[in-house]
Amino acid sequence: MAPSGIDQTLTAEERDDVKLHIAMFPWLAFGHILPYLELAKLFAQKGHQISFISTPKNIHRLPKLPPSLSPLINLVKLPSLNLPNDSESTSDLPREKVPTLKKAHDGLRDPLSDFLQSSKPDWLLFDFAAYWVPDMARDIGLPNVYFSIFTAASLGYIGAEVPDYRTEPDDFVVAPKWVPFPSTVAYRKYEVSKVFDDLTGMDDDVSVCYRIAKALRGCHAVAVRSCWELETEWLNLLRDLLGKPVLPIGQLPPAPPPNDNEEDENDESWRSTKRWLDLQPKRSVVYVAFGSEAVPSQDELTEIALGLELSGFPFFWALRARSDSVELPTGFGPRTREQGIVCTSWAPQLKILGHDSVGGFLTHSGWSSVVEALQFGVPLVLLTFTNDQGLNAKLLQEKMIGYLVPRDENDGSFTRESVAESLKLVVEKEGGKVYKDKAKEMSPVFGDRGVQNKYVDEFLGYLKAHNTTIWPKE
């Protein structure tokens, strides 16, 4: 066996000409799959070959690749998971069933290993759930990078070890002991109640904390969907904790929608939405969306709706509730017919956020939504539900980029008045100007394609300089 790494004596120009084969294996959630795909497209634009690996149903649901990139991105289907109702992603399951998806995902180790040994990529980028990848990759001589779509703050909060003292919910409501600088990044009590079993590994599942810590410790390097401009202290902390390269990859903003009048003319849903947005004053509309997996309770949905009504702002609510058991308050539709729109089908979020009538975004703090809003400088009002959203929101609040809707710390309840007042603060009041200013300041950081390209080039430079893949000679 002989190394096929890059000759370290190559000039920068010669190294630029080297093309890699990079395998990518995201967790089975579209909040992970789509950022991985954005990065795959950026790699392919630079001439690198990508093997994008998932299960059949997820591969089928990917957005269509640009014709110029499809020859360079090989969509690899591992075996189906054989779960009830052909479930292959978190969007197919209620939250309490996600542990079954993780266990089925762990069963992909052998077919993934078989594919990698037959295709011989130069690098493998993997996600937190596949904590077993570093051991598997070591067995077959494949260098690997844990590519985290979680923020550096979230990774720093979880840490590279599972400490003995973190056994009770109250242990998760403060910053961990290894964070050397003042920080409020931690879950609130009501958030911990929703994620405690996941964090600690109840129900015989491998805990999220263990999966992330094992991935961080076992990989050759860590790539983070982040940037120095936002998370300098957290990225440096991770480097200190791990003693290995921690490389920000940029925020991976989706490509802006094409300014294509013909395409717009053929899209009736966007045409009607745009007509309504065009009629609203600049920076007056509140856009509301909580992602495809957040499930507000009936009480929460009621207070959100009545808070929007009480605010008096025009609103566009992309309401994609996953449960038929919740409904809007009686009379809400007729009363707000002139004020706003409730869209229960797919909404073109990127186009809406990019419209100059939008003045605020009421969001669950899912990072992809945060990135989409901040690339257009839209200020954020934060209302979290589950997963890493609470950590994201605390980071954004700490940086004065987003305002958290006040809630009861114990049960998470909030009122229509707190929703309305939060929106008024951020969208129109002088006291909320800091959030508007910070959103504008972050716009080039989150949306500038040149900034993004620089981070990708630096990451690819690392992969080329440290490519030490060892495969048996034919």
From TrEMBL:
Pfam family for this entry, one: UDPGT
Stretches for region Disordered: 249-273
Superkingdom of this protein's organism: Eukaryota
GO MF terms, alphabetically ordered: UDP-glucosyltransferase activity
Keywords: Glycosyltransferase, Transferase
Protein family according to the UniProt entry: Belongs to the UDP-glycosyltransferase family.
Name recorded for this polypeptide: UDP-glucuronosyl/UDP-glucosyltransferase
